[in-house]
Amino acid sequence: MMWLELDSDELTRGRLMPSVLLCVDPSLLQGAGSLDAVGHRFDDCAPSLQAALSALSSEPLAPEARADLQRCFEALPAGGRIVHIGFMVTRHPTVLKLFAAMDKEQVLGYLDAIRWPGSLAEAASLIDTFGAGPDTFRVDLTIGAGLLPRLGLEFASRRGADPERRALIDRCVEQGLCTPEKREALLSWSGSTREVIPGYARPVRLSRWLDLKIVHRPPEPREAKAYLGFMFHFSLLG
Questions:
Q1: By the 8 A CB rule, do 55 and 104 touch?
Q2: Region 13-22 average pLDDT
Q3: What global pTM score does this model have?
């Protein structure tokens, strides 16, 4: 499974060069529900990752970066998994983004095990401030020439009413990472509607969801990012 991510900054510059995210989590591909339903190893994913990197970039993965990537797989805690690996092809050399899902209590131990070069105290503060709601979330790591001190906490959307999502956005407003106006716009995004698409005879269902990420990138201030997702559902029955 592959996703394309468009950066608004790139679009405003008149360039349409999406980043490519590969799903490497077998539990998503096979529809398994729990974190420990299906395991996976670096060796299982390495051929696909190498093929993707060869197709998207003329620069091979540096030995140190490959070692850091492998360590991120091998150090996964019980029930943890790598969900996506992203290729930020607009950057030179190509930067890899790694999204690892795990329980909140496992994050600091995992960062220590992979030799994350950032401050564990600052990571703990980030989790304490924004991770009060969910028990699990995704850790967003960045690998350039090696593992970088940038850290993101990603909170995936849930179906239906999600009070934790509003609480998280409220905390972003309190911390100065989001304006009240943007909060209201984000809260109104998620849902489902029937839409008419030109060239298609019947109305189709449009599902909209919202993923949020809190980014720690020293020495820059913390940053909140919102990812507006949508999907059309086509049906022969209307």
A1: no
A2: 69
A3: 0.81
